[in-house]
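Continuing the batch. This is chain 6 of the set; chains 1 through 5 are on the previous pages. Same settings as before, nothing changed between runs. Recording input and output for traceability.
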Amino acid sequence: MNNIATTEIRAKKHSRLIKSSLMKRNLEKFLSNRLALFGLILVLVLVIVSVFAPVFTRYNPALVDASQRFLPLSFTHLLGTDNVGRDVFSRILYGGRISMFIGLVSALGASLIGIILGCYSGYLGGKTDSVILYVWEIFSAFPQTILVLIMVGFAGRGLSNLIIIFSITGWTGVYRIVRSRILSIREEAFVECCRANGIGDFSIMFRHMLPNTLGPVIVTITLQTAGYVLAEAGLSFIGLGVESSIPTWGNIINAAKSMLIIQNYPAMWLAPGIAISLFVLGVNFFGDGLRDVFDPKQ
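Output for chain 6:
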């Protein structure tokens, strides 16, 4: 008995050492990627200034003051004011909160749907796999932008509606990744051991098999977050996104789309455009770095 206990302890210590060594190697690999590190820093800076917006600006982004319309750039108003007297800099900071929130929550929602369907489809197979795969083919047959526009037309604009619509239409990529990984590992020895020990299918899928698929899923979530920030900006620009009373990067550009503002007050549309570009660029660099870390072929 003592020998068995000693062997188990040694095995656990060996497993911890392997995990620690792998984590250290992945961290070193990520830190050696300068573009990925730059992307992470860029995203963190944008997130911090948006979350702690009251620290960086004292203006209410929704406060309308007709006497302060179209003020130029100054120390008082770093990016001037818009056509109804709202401080542009404060609107960009507070708008970043909403835009990034929509992007992240939508990506997480879409990934959750894709993970659940992918696990059940890949593990159970048979009719379950055929039905879910058929639904996936229907969603994949149409561009996501078209599906989003159709659903927004029925459901209406709004913050919660937009998140739900993005989640419903964006699960196909994660589903494909998870299903293919589950299919490849469901006949592995550790899965057979779990079945032999009487562990339920739900536990096998989500406790033992799912962790082996999370690497590419995390990469997909980061890239989808940037995509949904762009999608929100595009929908808000054409009046189909978040309500105009809520400051988002898309709504800020929407408020500056008249020819008068475009020609004479470029800061009103250029600043939110740069904020969107920097965030998307940072997320893409960060996502590429994560892909290099999690991809065993690299």
